[in-house]
Amino acid sequence: VHLEESGGGSVQSGGSLRLSCTASGYTRSTYCMAWFRQAPGKEREAVAAIDSDGDTTYADSVKGRFTISRDNGKNTLSLEMNNLKPEDTAMYFCAAESLFGGCTKAAGIQYWGQGTQVTVSS
Fold it and tell me: In this model, does residue 52 exceed pLDDT 90?
């Protein structure tokens, strides 16, 4: 499975960005997908995850500001990010499939994209 992200960039605090991820290769609609992020010197953390039924999970820091969605027919994953803050600055990674049943732990993720940079200035 190949995952490719797009949509990163630089915005001012309070701005919005939309990240997209396209999956290719052998894909299944039954796997979970997620967005992770990693800032310099910090561990990779789950931002939002979505399972095959469309149930979603969000990190507390982004609840109410970010929205994850997927289109199984197009094998795409999206992350709508609103009211961005400087602390959202990080490399954002698309992720798919997990050994642990849900895509909320980096250690279990089977497939990763290359990442797209999001920079929020104050």
Answer: no
